[in-house]
Amino acid sequence: MNSPHFLSFKAVLIVLWLMPNAWALEFNRYHDQDEIAAFLRTEATNNPELVHFEVLGKSQQGREIAIVAITKNVNADAPAIYFNGTHHGNERASTEVVLALINYLVLEQNNPAVERILRRYRIILQPMVNPDGHALNLRTDSRGVDPNRDYATPNKPEKDAFQLVETRLVRDLMIKEKVVASAAFHSGLEAVLWPWCHTPTLSQHDPVFRTLAASVAKTMQMNRTSQSFYDYKTDGEFIDFAYMRHGTYALTFEVAQEATPPANRLQAVVRRAVQGSFSFLRAVDSIRSSVQTPALILTGDGQASL
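User: That's the sequence. What structure does it adopt?
Assistant: Structure tokens below.
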């Protein structure tokens, strides 16, 4: 993974320089769901050749679950990189980070470094996996179920997973899109985590995950990277599912110490997370450009193999 094409310190400095000075949204406060819905639609309306808006479905309580796809690649089968937020509804910083990343990609669409990514990939962005939890300020969904424990994993077969409509929509999106990398935003500590979550056993791509996590953490000036199991053991997490089932480079970005940092710190949180996200995009692109078979391949036992 020491390819000369890989993300360098100079590239990190470029990421910092690229950060926009203006935002379509002001991140000095948290946004409600009406504002979020209006923002997504407005970005698609104002940038019809770049941004595609789609409603995936409705939550258990009937709230809209939507995504935008941002790309300059006209191929509908272009590889996708998928970001999501708000598995846990009270982690409101995770929602705002996705909105800021949308804002950044639109504002910087003609910057050469950003344009390269947009011409090679479809960037799929989902601000809220769990809008009911967001509306009710709950970690769980409206029935008390944690969406980030509801995915199929090596220890959790399909029949025991996807009890929630919200996680089924994520599952169906992953099937529809050719997702080669993904990041789930959370907040409550500052760290970058990778599979596996359910076991201390190293994944087949542990060195790749360590390299990706290190590049993101360096950009975000975070000290903690870890296999997710050593954060704490869980089963049914999104990143285990994404890696096991679809062979994606999947990370968890924990973007702030608090689930909902004070509003006067929010802009600093989202700026740093956007920087880390762009570092992730560049690192994934570098890895995929430097190996003969860029996508992770799933073997018959559900393990990912390069």
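The two ends are 13 Å apart (CA to CA).
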